[in-house]
## 1
Amino acid sequence: MSKTTAGNYFEDFRLGQELVHATPRTITEGDVALYAGLYGSRFALTSGETFARGLGLERMPVDELLAFHVVFGKSVPDISLNAVANLGYAGGRFHRPVHVGDTLTATSTVIGLKPNSNGASGNVYVRTEGRNQDSEVVLDYVRWVMVRRRETVPADRLGETTIPDLPGAVPASELIAPWRVVGGYDTALAGSEFLWDDYEVGERIDHVDGVTIEESDHMLATRLYQNTAKVHFDQHAQASSKIGRRLIYGGHVISLARALTFNGLGNALSVAAINGGSHANPTFAGHTIYAWSEVLERIELPGRHNVGALRIRTVATKDHPCADVPLRGEDGRYLPHVVLDLDYTVLMPRR
Amino acid sequence: MSKTTAGNYFEDFRLGQELVHATPRTITEGDVALYAGLYGSRFALTSGETFARGLGLERMPVDELLAFHVVFGKSVPDISLNAVANLGYAGGRFHRPVHVGDTLTATSTVIGLKPNSNGASGNVYVRTEGRNQDSEVVLDYVRWVMVRRRETVPADRLGETTIPDLPGAVPASELIAPWRVVGGYDTALAGSEFLWDDYEVGERIDHVDGVTIEESDHMLATRLYQNTAKVHFDQHAQASSKIGRRLIYGGHVISLARALTFNGLGNALSVAAINGGSHANPTFAGHTIYAWSEVLERIELPGRHNVGALRIRTVATKDHPCADVPLRGEDGRYLPHVVLDLDYTVLMPRR
Amino acid sequence: MSKTTAGNYFEDFRLGQELVHATPRTITEGDVALYAGLYGSRFALTSGETFARGLGLERMPVDELLAFHVVFGKSVPDISLNAVANLGYAGGRFHRPVHVGDTLTATSTVIGLKPNSNGASGNVYVRTEGRNQDSEVVLDYVRWVMVRRRETVPADRLGETTIPDLPGAVPASELIAPWRVVGGYDTALAGSEFLWDDYEVGERIDHVDGVTIEESDHMLATRLYQNTAKVHFDQHAQASSKIGRRLIYGGHVISLARALTFNGLGNALSVAAINGGSHANPTFAGHTIYAWSEVLERIELPGRHNVGALRIRTVATKDHPCADVPLRGEDGRYLPHVVLDLDYTVLMPRR
């Protein structure tokens, strides 16, 4: 039975190792529609072909997060099949738009390794890159996961620790704004009258709406991304785990939260960067997701007078509306109903 | 937190007001497939490209009700986010087919206002229009909803009442039949041997089959239509409501009922008009939907000898098969298991 | 109410009878995406356009099993609406690839009839053929089902028995391999390093992973295939049946099992034949599906040096991981947790 992949364990990773991930995946109109049905996103740039053309694009781009999930999904069988926890993201950049018809592939490079002192696991840091059929990088990001060892080792055989310099927030000079505002910008069609200039650093927005997740929803999404992590799909096995439930793919919560932010950030047409993020607590079917956001930074883009960037923190919660902007308790730890703390950068038209 | 849309309240509407709705939405093959998966429709005109071409069309059109739901969905954030009830439809006309690749936008005009005497709400009547990327009207309809006031007003400050002349059934002269029967019509491929000539006014058809709705189904559909009404999505909030459950979008029931009518009305290839309709009782996940129909009118189309129209009443029920054609009780009110009473007009080949 | 189809009963079938099935169905990118979301298949040939072109194809083909389900679905209203049980498959051949844009139609020929001695039902054997818009056969297969009689007949009026010669495994000379390996074959992108030469007859593979089925999943799939069998959809009626539950379409389990086999048979890029199969026990929502496979035969294809075929038995189970390769009990009957025993032939690159 050796032809079955059991995934890599901590001892299988080496610093500098490059992993070519299976399977090439062509993005279609079908993926775009399923993404719409799964999250109900209303950002105009990825909803209406005519709107995208009005912003100087030849074709409507695919939602950045759909591309992100597809690339992420490819990395799962090689990187995180034996993960204990998905610890964080950093330095996620969207280099160029993905369009319907593009075929995405992914590779990862191991940039850090940190054995845990218990000898049973360790943290693996990778930079994952998604490319299109012309070998152009469409997105890349760093993530780190805690991965089990195949066999526990004694304290004197843990191996070297190399923690990479994690990138901070993606700087203005590296943000790509693939569209521009030509002539007027139709805020009525876009669904919000508030533009870049109207947001202030420190401003907080309760996105009000909530969406309940069902088992079918997150599994349909996660299979669409060809993400094979067992914990999302196998209730028979999960029943005898500590959790007892299927765990919802963190990216599903990210996309739900992003869709919820439309109410308050309706002109945040593109995601340009994922600066960092944590899945603070697990999400299960039956939970209702709410979100609030804080404007962390208002970024002028070099040479761009009608498009600006906002660095945003979006916090998602479960079964807890966000009027009280929940985040951490007095002990400094995430509150139990906080499920996501995402630091990312969006692009928005300026006045 | 003022950047969040809370939707319009009764006092925000003015007679003659025009509302431009967000977000432009391009209809794709993906939407068509999801619609197929959600309802299992088998009408040949919207299922097989070759069949559509055989009826003189260059391309297969998109199901009229998919286009209707997308246009309706756009109107929700502006018209019915604070609705207490969706009271009725009238004068729905399908002016021209929608095709894959079309981008739909929507606008509404307030044509009537009726304050309720309790001072807490009122009925808003709108005519909503969906247009394609060439600004051609593809469909329009009137609907009226009861909308909450932001603040209750005393009896002497209710404001004016204007009830519009509601259109009756769309007359033959306004029905558009975009396809024609050229040469023979293949009833075997279409799935029914019964043509327009075979139906009699007053005839009733029990459509026999039943379909159970799950939470995932209606939420996937309703998000696909970018319909943002909270009651469909937020179980956490609904749990503390009188209903205690997520309410299923009425249009989801309309599409399920239309798909069920294939068994008995298989050659009703297109919907040409929605003359009127009521969501008689709420539908929840777990309910099994059944339907029966009555032929209300057999309409000859001016100058069209091989296509006719049938005005149909389709009644849908929950957890109650329709052999007994249920509708109203002795008190004249809808029976508790009746969820839809729809008066619409379909097009069908003639002998 | 006579315009409603109640489906054919045993006494409606005649030997040699040809049935033209409704409804023509155009396969789109949307169907492909939904299929991906429903099963999470990762076989590279049907996932990445560039990968398909690398194998000498002009366009990426559609998964053979999606085409199979669509053709099968068409036959349901005419063949198995009154089926008691779906007894078996044989001689399923995939003659040519189906592509996005193809419109499929289906016909069946009655090739055998076997009345049951109880006078209440009988077995109907049909050969069903799916064709594309150019009338080219894309696939055909034999299946047999036990169908109820409209009215029970006494023992002396059962009618003739004709059992057809059921085809054995599709021979090498009839297997179509529409792609070829040109230059190198990228096993990293494909997701498995094991090629045809690496598999041995008798080898068994536990595919390890499990996927739990929800009601929404199988209904979405089964409606997508326009399969109208009531037992899959109508919980209200099923509640009063012996089973008490909605029964999951057997083809849904076949597709889930095929997707699971990726882990161990990752280069089995195409299904070339379905030699036989049984749905050993019913599957319900909530069940977790696992699978194991046995290599039955390693087949050289005439004149093809870089593509070979493997005849595979894949067994799927419910709520029972397959490390113990479960199949039959000591009494020779399928074990209660075995739900599928499928004998089929796949195509795989050779070294």
## 2
Amino acid sequence: MQEEFISSKQNAKVKNWRKLKTAKGRKQQGLYMIEGEHLIEEAVRSGVYLEAIILNETYEGAYPTGFSTYRLAAHVFESLAETDSPQGILAILGAQSRFNAAEDFQQLLAKPGDAINRWLLVDGVQDPGNLGTIIRTADAAGYRGVVLGTGTVDLYNDKVLRSTQGSHWHIEVVELPIETAMQTLQGAGIPVLATALHREARDYRTLDYAAGAPLALVVGNEGQGVQAKLIEQANLSVFIPMPGQAESLNVAVATGILLFAL
Amino acid sequence: MQEEFISSKQNAKVKNWRKLKTAKGRKQQGLYMIEGEHLIEEAVRSGVYLEAIILNETYEGAYPTGFSTYRLAAHVFESLAETDSPQGILAILGAQSRFNAAEDFQQLLAKPGDAINRWLLVDGVQDPGNLGTIIRTADAAGYRGVVLGTGTVDLYNDKVLRSTQGSHWHIEVVELPIETAMQTLQGAGIPVLATALHREARDYRTLDYAAGAPLALVVGNEGQGVQAKLIEQANLSVFIPMPGQAESLNVAVATGILLFAL
């Protein structure tokens, strides 16, 4: 396929792509942008819809063929890139169908996939690096999916995407208020555990779930943790005892400890 | 104590403080800079040497008293701050005595403290957020200290400090080539485990160390992992089996899983 050269920032395509830098623009167009050779390769391997490959005029690296490809003058390319030292390659992808009605989630639960029926519920995580790492960890642990609650940073934020390393293409991503997701899970007979920061909760080391038993875990905001009303709604609240002096663990680290221990 | 007002970026003190933004400047002056009310409170609580408190002229929040305090014109303050939206308060601290000779480390090992004699060895971790989170995790797990090997990002980098949340004041921080630290640990009869990315290593779930038994764990660079020569030098190499599709875990998450499981 031939490459189209674009030399102006005012080009209509470029203007639309630039809008993908905001959550609003991504929602309107149903598209999002990723950066870097490795992540783009991973996207192609995952079979996600790829609308365009965008190269800096100076880019000499490899890129997947068979897609609409554009070469941009350096100053035009830089108006799109998010990182300070961009690798010179971007791709525009179609947003995944993200289940955001309780009925969709219910149907998903009713159809067990190959993965174990375990879900990670994310309540208000703010830091993009943390969210991306949490999704990557849930994928590594073989979880079936994550639910992103209200107030959690947008999945298609460029820093989130960089930290996921493509894991959001491997597992289900659901956008639902956490209380709704919990009701749906509980209605399907799946116990929901919430992480708590206090020692009245159950020490996670005393839990004994069969490997692969359906389960959901709620993790919370960096400062506040999981909301009190959600802890109350959960079947059980758990905490990680810390012998040292640190006040708390990073939320992605705490998630990793729990997902791999349960 | 009275506040001194500084209105010029060319002020000699300000010029010296600005040099603390580089690893070279920090090494020359034996000082480093931290930002934000919470971290500064934590520093005061930890009893670390505090040389100066620096406030933006617009700052109206709380700050510890009894220290040399400076108020800076906004443009002067901004020339020092590292974050995009600084909180308006900085502090200059004395660098901790960081043991960086093998003999010092040997003496440290010979004097068991209150903490369990467990050490985390960090081989070439590059991302400041990862290193800070790793130190915070080692603190939470009650480890006695961390060893930062050659090629690991500087402890006093502002992003590292923000992620440690003060944990580097709670545990020992040693700067030594990892092979030297390993030899010293092994000479003291402490087994050294290295994390490996391949499945020929031992599944960490099959290990059974008594709680509190002396132990050291080596974690490695984000891309390459622990260097092969170090894996060879270790008493044992371990890995974390991942049932999912992710290629790897974030190094701070992997560290958390291992520290809390061992």
